[in-house]
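Open question from group meeting: does this chain pack into something compact, or does most of it stay loose? Before anyone orders reagents, we agreed to write out a predicted structure and look at it together. Recording both the input and the output here so the notebook holds the full record.
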Amino acid sequence: MSAHTGSPDRVKPVLPRDLAAMRAAATPIVCTTAYDVLQGRLVDAAGVDVVLVGDSLGQVVAGLPSTREVTLDAMIWHTAAVRRGVSRALLVLDMPWLTYQVSADEAVRNAGRALAASGAAAVKMEGGTPPIIEAVRRCVEVGIPVMGHVGYTPQTDVALGGARVQGRDGDRAEALVAEAQALAAAGAFAVVLELVPAAVAQRIAEAVAIPTIGIGAGPHCDGQILVLPDLLGLNEGFRPKFLRRYAELGAAAREAVGRYAADVRARRYPDDETSFA
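Structure tokens returned:
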């Protein structure tokens, strides 16, 4: 079966070059996040092409105020857990804040350690400034596949004025196109576009030869990514314009736990059927 069909029964692991082939064939690339082995197993079996272990785990898993508190050790631990559930999708580890921005040497050292210790196939780095471009270039030169990320970059949200759409004014739109082009030239195999106007995302997709993966960036990207707890309705208070919920598992889980609690209190559980003789 083709490596580009998105079928959950294919065995061949997805590689960065497969994403390029999907772009060339105009086959949309499906991406989600995952943070543990059960989530990894579920999304892999569902046929997603890319699984990102995002530093968003700091907020949606640990309840931290931002992604900046997430450590490289935490990312490695969670990615290794996801790896145990993922056998087919391309597994990408989100490099945490200040693990790649300080110097290219440090970026190579940290990214190499992250891949070796976690089992991920690639890393993701946020931003398109010259230090980031150099970090991407150096990592690619030593054989570390890198996914880029421009637009709204959560690790630098304070500098960007919070979670807001990027590129609505002409100068910023031009800068985003240039950043994506620089990442592609540095060897990034794909680039995430986050909170970018659809028309600007389309310009970027036309300006680069690598796949673009959108989140809040409209329909013209080569693929889309959503945070798994968001699309499943587990992160119930989060309702941005770009999010479509495909389930309401938060409400379903609350109802299930409520029924369990009621059965325990009424001594309906455990019963003869769920007890050993």
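Observations to bring back to the group:
The two ends are 49 Å apart (CA to CA).
The first helix runs from residue 16 to 24.
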